[in-house]
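Take a look at my tokenised protein here and describe the backbone shape.
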Amino acid sequence: MIKRWKVEIEDKGVRLDNFVTKNEVDLTRSFVKNLNDLGKILVNGKQVKAGYSLSEFDEVSVDLPKPEVVDILPENIPIKIVYQDDDLLVVDKPQGMVVHPAGKLKTGTLVNALLFCVKNLSTINGKIRPGIVHRIDKDTSGLLVVAKNDFAHKSLQKQIQEKTCERTYLAVVYGSFREDEGDIKNYLTRGKNEHEKFFVVPELQGRYAETHYKVLKNTGGFSLVQFQLKTGRTHQIRVHSTFLGHPVVGDKKYGRKDEKFNLNGQLLHAYKLSFLHPKTNEKMEFESPLPDYFERFLKEHNLQDND
């Protein structure tokens, strides 16, 4: 299976291997390097080094090996569907649920649940990720939109790429911000030895990431913060929070190692989602209440927003 991309201005100067892993998030850098060594990755029809610095309008093609035939089975797993029509549905994902199968994980995901309760799902992302337009991390809760057909999928995907789909999160982080509102703008890439972990890097080594934040309540030790994604990089809010010195409470990957709270994951919730309906062009807006464990933490630490 051959996949192709045209390099846009935001990826100018990015290493070829980084570019491929950003566009195919399930591939590790070492796997990409092996593909490149075998001549399976081309830039403008020619083989180049994995560290080649891309230029705007370059055309990158990757000849991916035929995927292993995997049957993802429907499972009767309760999920909260907050809206549904012939083209899409909006799901409120609980903390602890993985969005789609990956690696050895074949069961218990949102996709398994969707296959059980939804008749049709878009096919653009294949059998492993039917209907999945965007993802949220396993231990992040909240809203995501799922496409029922390829027309809706392409429309929603385009809105995310053009930043007209608004995704807003609430998080509890450590400490107090110098400024109550601002933008975090930098570049992210996977770590060389920790492919599942992302880091802030110089401009030419990563992909542009932008997050807007607004502090809603602060008690000195903790802040309740609203984050709005301007781009949608993997682990973006968690990496940006830690970069500022304010890791998300409960984050086992990017957070504090000495944390003593009995939490099952980060206090990060995708509470607001808005987009234009693919068929009607009507603006759709949804909000999700905070989970009980999140509300308890706010109450215990006097972080409830009174506005």
Q: What stands out?
A: The mean pLDDT is 91.
